[in-house]
Write a structure and sequence with these properties.
- The protein is α/β, with parallel strands linked by helices and 97 residues long.
- Helix content is 39%, strand content 34%.
- Strands 1-2-3-4 form a four-stranded mixed sheet.
- β3, α2 and β4 form a beta-alpha-beta unit.
- It starts with a strand and ends with a helix.
Length: 97
């Protein structure tokens, strides 16, 4: 998995490429935790191939942290990942555009 960070003032976009699973989820979690100064977070999944329950846990934790700030948005979600969000109920929890 590759994570690319783009910061514009207090707004941060993380582009995630590859697989977000048990092995790679801690990397995304560390990256998100390093954004304590950020007010809002966008996670771009245009190149995400797969997400596991470990990845979902990281997203839920980030969602809770950024709900207290400017919010978190997930963009460019593939049909495969969107199906996982739908089946798990995350589609109703997360702000997906």
């Amino acid at each position: 998995m590759t994570i690319t960070k783009n910061q514009n003032g207090t707004s941060v976009t993380l582009s995630v490429e590859g697989r977000l699973d048990t092995i790679t989820a801690p990397d995304l979690e560390k990256e998100i935790q390093s954004l304590s100064e950020a007010a809002s977070l966008e996670i771009d999944f245009a190149n995400l191939e797969y997400i596991s329950s470990a990845g979902l846990r990281v997203l839920l934790s980030a969602h809770k942290a950024f709900a207290k700030k400017g919010g978190m948005t997930i963009t460019n979600v593939s049909e495969t990942v969107l199906d996982i969000f739908d089946v798990t109920g995350f589609k109703d929890i997360l702000n997906i555009k």
